[in-house]
Amino acid sequence: YVDASEACNDLRFVLGNQGVGTGIANRQWSVKVTQYACDFKNLAPEGCTQYHFGASTDIIQTYNFAGGRHLADQNQNICIRRERGNCKICFTAIEAIDVAVSGVLADMGFNNDDKKCCGYSPAGLADQGFDCIIIPGLMKSAAPNERLGDSMCGHNAGLVDVPVGADSVTVCSTRQPFNVRFRSDTFETMGELGILGFRLVYTQNSNGC
User: 80 partner at 20 to 30 Å CA-CA among 92, 142, 179, 182?
Assistant: First the structure.
């Protein structure tokens, strides 16, 4: 979602001029544009780049998921409307490999640790997972009184509820409005192929809140 002008709206595509391998790949795209009236009852809240509504269960994913690697310089804010009668939202990965945002943490699996995600190391290196997922108010599904860090990074272990490494689990939040933010830096290189981004299933409910 983007705010539109009544006069003119430009779409600008910034493309590199060098290819990886023997040449530049053929570029093509198809864009569908849908305009909404300013008084549309389901208008996306300010700051949302995606808005999901009308279902208590759905799938969300980063741009270019499964296209090789996620995009650079992202601040994607996926907003989810709270459906009637619900007060909690829970997230899970369909498969462990559906969460892959930080390729430099190959030995860490997936990391739920605010101190090691969404930033650089003291030396300024991207070895602590700048690319990250932020879900405000995260808590364990099995133990809702145990709060988790809001940020996660790493790859190929789904979502976890311990600081470093574990089997993929379901995590939840009662913080409203519901949203998931994805941040990435400029450095998305060929060395990070396979860092797809994420694809998650969310389910809203009223259990325990």
Answer: 142
Please name which of 17, 13, 185, 1 lies closest in space to residue 101, comparing C-alpha atoms.
185
CATH number of the CATH domain containing 185 = 2.60.120.290
**In the chain, how many domains are there?**
1
62 is a domain residue: yes
152-183 confidence digits (pLDDT tens)? 887 777 777 665 556 678 899 999 999 999 99
What pTM does this model have? 0.82
- Residue indicated by tokens 């490494």: 165
The first and second tokens of residue 152, run together, are 């996660």
> Which domain range does residue 190 map to?
50-205
